[in-house]
Amino acid sequence: MSRTVYVNGAYVPEHEAKVSVFDRGFLMADGVYEVTSVVDGKLIDFAGHAKRLARSLGELEMDNPLSEAELLEIHRELVTRNDVSEGLVYLQITRGAADRDFAYPEVARPTVVLFTQHKTLVDTAAAERGISVISIPDERWGRRDIKTVQLLYPSMGKMMAKAAGADDAWMIEDGLVTEGTSNNAHIVKDGRIVTRHLSNEILHGITRAAVLRFAREAQMEVEERAFTLDEAQAADEAFVTSASTFVTPVVRIDDAPVGAGTPGPVARRLREIYIEEMRRAAI
Ligand code: PDD
């Protein structure tokens, strides 16, 4: 079945959607993106994603072509037209088409593309059984706080994990865990959640922010600081957060089982709270 996608103001069948070969997203990875989850046909934390999108665009001196209300309208229209009850809305904005040049073009009209993907998010095997990760060096650029479409290294990391028989990879820089290939990394030791502080070194996850808020509301202790790979392997629990995984337990890091090697109570509880609260607040 063909999806309806959104391209620069029009809703079109996916095989009719077109973007210029001169688009700077294609030539220079000069673009940003967001992934918003859909549960019960409603958007999870739309406002958080819209806010980070505006920040990413601002950091790259790109104009935001759409208001938050317009953006919401497009997300909802695509969810309806494609009959998505559970899944994702992918949004990408690039600087647009211009003759190839390293300098930003003086005038370019941003390219805006959105599409949906059906995906099971709530009842997943990964959440039930937990996932395994390998550690790899973090070889990405230094502005990971901007959600750009230059995802080749995370993609290579995912392939390294696959080749090693693992589900994903955690990236290490100066002996410290930065984040997962497409999620934020967290550990639990003696009931306390330890998660890397925000900086240019990691993406400021929208799910991370919500989960930490819920954890604090539930009187759990949260410490925002970098942690080592050794610390993670010796932790009681580990988990990742993202729009597509919510809260998913990590039960093995390289050759070491984390805790009992099965999903722990903190990660399970946080996943429950996150899904319950976000379902209630979805729009
Ligand atoms: N990835 N860190 C990285 C490097 C990410 O790519 C993502 C999201 C996150 C989590 O951010 P959030 O909670 O806002 O989804 C952290 C998305 C899901 C993706 O690329 O598909």
Could you give a short description of this structure?
The chain is an alpha+beta fold and 283 residues long. It is 30% helix and 30% strand.
Keywords, please?
9-stranded mixed beta sheet; 15 strands; D-amino Acid Aminotransferase, Chain A, domain 2; alpha+beta; 2 domains; single chain; binds N-(5'-phosphopyridoxyl)-D-alanine; 6-stranded antiparallel beta sheet; D-amino Acid Aminotransferase, Chain A, domain 1; 283 residues; 8 helices
Question: How would you portray this structure in words?
Answer:
This protein has 8 helices and 15 strands. The mean pLDDT is 98. By secondary structure, it is an alpha+beta fold. The radius of gyration is 19 Å and the shape is globular. The strands form 2 sheets. Strands 7, 8, 9, 10, 11, 12, 13, 14 and 15 form a 9-stranded mixed sheet that branches. A 6-stranded antiparallel sheet has the order 2-1-6-5-3-4. The longest helix is centred in the C-terminal third of the chain and has 17 residues, at 265-281. The protein has 2 domains: 4-118, Aminotransferase class 4, branched-chain amino acid transferase, N-terminal domain (D-amino Acid Aminotransferase, Chain A, domain 1); 125-281, D-amino Acid Aminotransferase, subunit A, domain 2 (D-amino Acid Aminotransferase, Chain A, domain 2), CATH 3.20.10.
Rg, please? 19 Å
Instruction: Tell me roughly what share of residues is in helical segments.
Output: 25-40%
List SSEs in N-to-C order.
EEHEEHHEEHEHEEEEHEHEEEH
CATH class wording of the largest domain? Alpha Beta
CATH superfamily of the largest domain: D-amino Acid Aminotransferase, subunit A, domain 2
Q: Which hetero ligands occur in this complex?
A: N-(5'-phosphopyridoxyl)-D-alanine
Number of domains: 2
Percentage of residues in strands: 25-35%
